[in-house]
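Most newcomers find our protein records easier to grasp once they have seen one. To make this concrete, we reproduce a full record directly below:

…
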Amino acid sequence: MAETDTERAERFAREAAATPTLTEAEYRVRSRRSVLFGGAAALAGVAGWRWIQTRPEDNNIPSVLRDAHEFNEALWTPLHRDDHLAPTFDRSESSILRVNGRHGLRNEEEIDIDAWRLDVRGPDGDQIGEYSLADIQALPKVEWTVEHKCIEGWSHVVTWGGVTFSDFAELHRADLGDGGTTYVNLDTPDGEYFVSVDWASMMHPQTMLAWELEGEPLDFPHGAPLRLATPVKYGIKQIKRIGTIEFSNQRGPDFWESRGYDWYAHL
């Protein structure tokens, strides 16, 4: 049977009467303690931040923060597994990805897709391949509906179409030697944007060279004619408008790492 308004009011009154109360003296003691603890925590935070700022810099951030980035990489790298796939979604849940960042796309209206060529370099720096967009599109096509995650904190479900990087890399297996490579370095044609990615992440089965977004050819703001797409790295690694791919045993320069961000940027 439901309580009446009178019964409910009486129950609230009984519960309030049974609730322990503080005397004024006890309240003042607790208030002083809270102020003291809060003040001490704030002072410790300020002192810690000032100490961090006195550390020598490493790639535009205090070395202690760079050490934290590298510790994160050392911790998570051994846990990477090719059979650990990122979640996929129904195609109906995806939509056009917002444009965020135009580095390397300054002359987006000037690129001639028919004349565009992908330059591929081997570990010694020599050219080992050159591809038109049609050449890339002739490779086995895959499509993934995955979550694109930005290091700024937002995410978006999106559908990419292209070729897995592992299939593309297989074309140059003989060029890489018995030892293979440990990094893949990628640049835009104008050299304004560049990333370096660990080999394991590039060979993950959901990492692709994408030429389609939501079933349509990439437009200029999203990286036409070819970009990197992978759910295992933050967006800062997913370079748009690839001009050069270098298979290397040397970690190449990385646009955002040189500006203080985490090189590994793994998910």
Q: What stands out?
A: The chain has a mean pLDDT of 85. The CA atoms of residues 183 and 251 lie 6 Å apart.
